[in-house]
Amino acid sequence: MLKNxxxxxxxxxxxxxxKRRLPSQFGGGFLFVSPDSGLKYYRRDLxxxxxxxxxxAKELVHPGDVVWDIGxxxxxxxxxxxxxxxxxxxVVAVEPDAWLVSLLRRxxxxxxxxRSPVVVIPAAVSDSMSLAKLHVASRARSANFxxxxxxxxxxxxxxxDSVVAVTLDWLLENLPPPQVLKIDxxxxxxRRLTGASKWLPKVRQRIWCEVLPSNADxxxxxx
Length: 223
Fold this sequence. Notes:
four-stranded mixed β-sheet; five-stranded parallel β-sheet; 223 residues
């Protein structure tokens, strides 16, 4: 066990990138991951890395769907959705961390005619068009956060990057409207949905949004 933990720590420190295969029910395609985004990605059996995420993809995504993944991380949901939506579908992965964006783009370039194309947008999503400060977590990059939220799991920030922030309303003006919207943005979900005042009444979609208890009432009122 200790030897394995040391090995993982070494991979994280070196920024090692691993190639993993999705479970067969999501097309069995490949994507690139890194323990720097979360230690669970060191596992070879990727289906056990995040069972809840895979289950939600199976429940929400249908063939031909347009899917938006806000806070895509390494793209586990994005590429699972691409396998489920198939060649007639369309997936948009929105991620502000430039390093994770590079992984998403490498994964999207792995040609697989049976899955949806995955468009990668390097941006944060907020309640207004602006420049935002992205705190890159000292621990796993999956705990990255935007100014205004303190994320205990981040363990502080290794650095702070300036990133472009857009709104869901702006995305709707420039992209096909989604049938599925997944939001995982470390405590800023209320600000993302506040930026969808024009969007929510017009578009009927299936939403999966991780919500902190402190934001539950606000999110309920918005929806």
